[in-house]
Amino acid sequence: MLHRSESNSILKTAKTPLRRNRLLVRPATIRVLAFLTLVALVILLSIDNLKRLFQNDNMIGEEGTKIIQSLCEHHQQQSPGSVLEKSNQILLEHQRASHTANEDHISMDTVIDDNTWKDLPVKGAFYMVVDSGDLQHIRASIRSVEDRFNHQFRYPWILLSNQHLTASFRNYITKLTTSPIFFGKIDAALWDYPSWVSGVRAEEYMNYFSSSDVKHASSFLFRQRARYHAGFFFHHSLLQNVEYAWRVEPGSDYSCIMDTDPFVEMEQRNKTMGFILTEREEPLAVRSLYPLTLQFMKENLQLMAPLKESIFPWLVDNKDPMYAKANGFNYCQIESNFMIVKLSYLRSPEYQSYFSFLDSTGGFYYERWNDASVQTMAAAMFLPRSQLHFFNHIGYTFERQMHCPWRSTDLGTCSCDITSATGKWVMRGGKKRVGGDAIRGCTLDLVRLLDKNILHQVAQFANKYQDSLGVGDAIGKLLARPPI
Question: What residue ranges are annotated as transmembrane (predicted)?
Answer without folding.
Answer: 28-47
